[in-house]
Specification:
The chain is of the alpha+beta class and 619 residues long. The chain has 19 helices and 20 strands. Helix content is 39%, strand content 15%. The longest helix is centred in the N-terminal third of the chain and has 30 residues.
């Protein structure tokens, strides 16, 4: 690059224009991102569930499209790949200046990185040319425009001199979102919420600072809209979320009330699809959410808000920080080795690194391109809390001295095309990073009888949730599922997943003669997408105790009719409900009013009377 004819002086007149072109590219991206997120409200009001899922899926692709556009523009207008080091340093400095008073500076910095690393060689991936560390603070960013929405609204139901009680405050909170579809009975639902508040907080004295803060935008995902906020009373802050759903009569209801960090962590799980949220200042949303879930890292909250590239960038910064402050070695991950993925980890870091192998056993009829397409399918699909999100990286340099020799030899043997050895560094050209979980087969070996029962029930529930999301997991062996710290069972082996609607679920034919009956081989024809659920048992249920629990709770998974029935409903356009909370938490409503079948199973939270008001009384 230094020998190029386009080497410039220290004051390249094009530098500012390049910086402005980069920022124009980002601003276009975020405008389209916000537009899609804002339109989620109308799709929710119209019950356009397929449109909502399509928007969730397509929005993920927006970023790469805008990066490609910006890189192409820089190359066409400025011959960007031939610019000197000095020019790129000037571009970065001008870009920092343009971000003063910008409302999404951290996202714009990441966009700058994405475009420039697409243009520049890996040797330039350092602080002089890209934003290895943030250059512009995201603290206390405010939207000064008079017509703009604040990040959150604060409500004071017990303010001295106010006639408004807690019930009226909750009604006003919901009304302020201006949903253009009628509630079946909002007053009744608010009474349910009021009773849930009572159950959560008990008889506590209200402090002078008692207030409810709610984020100004609703959180949309699949068939739900979520009001997210927190209750502040004295030194105590408690986060909450109110899911708003359509019932079978196409009217709105508040389905339940979720309280506290643990329930919100499940709502914002890494195994669920990203939310659609209209945000002017995303860093302020992340800061608010962190106050509700302090154990959840910022990068994961950016992911949950649909800003997965920002999440990926911040995760990598966290990873580099951890490397600098640890001394243990990368190793081959414990457990049964995969046939298509080489998996390694760093014991002190709660994630695993997965690299696609260059070759596979004969029984695995696949390719690198096909495996990558499966991971992309999971990224863009509704993960329903049962498929782990993956972070995909290219050209990652690791310190060689931190790798155990056995791991280096494994990579050299199974993934030579993806490995570059450069002095003290090992560069992996492509890898996935996922949260580390306890493999279910290992968990079952060490589990108590009660833990084993819970895990087997969860395993079956995980498969049923995947089915509801139109996913057939393919290889359902226990080793391909993991257990999270919340006890949830999550699937993480994606190389054989298929859409449920692409599979043919068949009953095993009866043998036509004694020879077929006694044969150890399959005597009937099997197509490439044929699935025989009756054959799952011998592979999964060898342990008699496991088999007893499985057959008690999930015997239908061995019946082709179960799978075919779900396939037919999905093919007919039905979108199943998969709740990011225990269905037994759902408010119980009077039967016979057209609610879904799960309403009859929900726990009753009827208030003492339909006109209950808390006003200035203790919660």
């Amino acid at each position: 690059m230094a020998g190029s004819a386009f080497v410039t002086t220290l004051n390249d007149p094009r530098a500012f224009d390049i910086a402005q072109a980069l920022l124009d590219g980002f601003n276009r991206h975020y405008k389209l991102f916000r537009q899609t997120s804002a339109e989620a409200k109308q799709r929710f009001e119209m019950a356009d569930w397929h449109g909502q899922q399509r928007a969730q899926r397509e929005r993920i692709e927006f970023y790469d499209l805008r990066v490609d556009e910006a890189a192409e523009r820089l190359e066409n207008e400025f011959r960007a790949s031939s610019l000197s080091e000095e020019t790129w340093q000037q571009v970065k400095l001008y870009y920092i200046g343009l971000l003063i008073n910008h409302h999404q500076p951290e996202l714009a910095e990441t966009f700058f990185n994405s475009v420039t690393t697409k243009i520049l060689h890996r040797s330039y991936f350092r602080n002089d040319f890209i934003f290895v560390r943030p250059a512009v603070s995201t603290e206390y960013i405010e939207n000064e425009e008079p017509a703009s929405l604040p990040t959150y609204r604060a409500y004071y139901p017990s303010r001295p001199g106010s006639a408004e009680g807690l019930r009226e405050t909750l009604l006003r909170i919901v009304d302020n979102y201006q949903l253009q579809r009628e509630f079946e009975d909002l007053g009744r639902d608010i009474d349910y919420v009021l009773q849930a508040f009572r159950n959560q907080f008990g008889d506590v004295k209200l402090s002078a600072n008692f207030q409810i803060q709610v984020l100004a935008s609703l959180f949309f995902r699949n068939k739900g809209a979520y009001i997210v906020g927190k209750v502040i009373n004295g030194f105590r802050e408690t986060g909450f979320a109110l899911p708003v759903l359509h019932n079978s009569r196409e009217l709105l209801t508040i389905d339940t009330a979720l309280f506290g960090e643990d329930e919100l962590l499940l709502l914002f799980s890494f195994a669920r699809a990203y939310f659609l949220v209209d945000m002017e200042i995303p860093s302020a949303y992340v800061q608010f959410l962190r106050s509700l879930m302090p154990r959840k890292p910022r990068w994961e909250l950016y992911n949950a808000l649909g800003l997965q590239k920002q999440g990926k960038n911040q995760f990598y910064r966290d990873f580099l920080y951890h490397l600098r402050h640890s001394s243990d070695s990368f190793r081959i991950a414990p457990g049964i080795k995969g046939m298509v993925m080489l998996v390694f980890d760093l014991p002190s870091f709660p994630f695993v690194f997965k690299v696609i192998k260059d070759f596979y056993p004969p029984q695995k009829d696949t390719s690198r391109e096909l495996i990558q397409s499966k991971y992309q399918l999971v990224k863009t699909h509704d993960r329903v809390g049962r498929m782990a999100d993956s972070l995909e990286y290219s050209n990652v340099a690791f310190p060689r001295q931190r790798f155990e020799p056995e791991l280096i030899e494994e990579i050299r043997h199974f993934c030579p095309s993806l490995l570059e050895e450069e002095g003290d560094s090992l560069v992996l050209k492509h890898l996935y990073i996922e949260r580390r979980m306890i493999p279910l087969n290992i968990y079952l070996q060490e589990a108590t009888p009660e833990q084993m029962k819970h895990a087997v029930i969860e395993y079956g529930n995980a498969i049923k949730d995947l089915v509801a999301a139109n996913i057939f997991p393919g290889d359902m062996l226990w080793k391909n599922f993991g257990v999270t710290r919340h006890g949830k069972v999550v699937f993480y082996d994606y190389d054989e997943i298929e859409y449920l609607t692409d599979c043919n679920f068949r009953k095993v034919p009866e043998p036509r003669n004694e020879e077929e009956e006694m044969s150890g081989d399959v005597w009937y024809s099997v197509g490439p997408k044929d699935v025989f659920p009756e054959t799952f048992g011998p592979f999964l249920l060898g342990n008699p105790t496991v088999r007893e629990v499985f057959m008690q709770h999930h015997a239908e998974l061995l019946d082709p009719a179960f799978w075919q029935g779900r396939k037919d409903r999905i093919a007919g356009g039905y979108v199943h409900d998969v709740f990011p909370y225990d269905p037994h938490k759902r408010f119980r409503r009077p039967l016979g009013l057209g609610f879904g079948s799960l309403d009859a199973e929900a726990v009753s939270l009827h208030p003492a009377s339909a006109t209950t008001q808390l006003g200035h009384n203790p919660i």
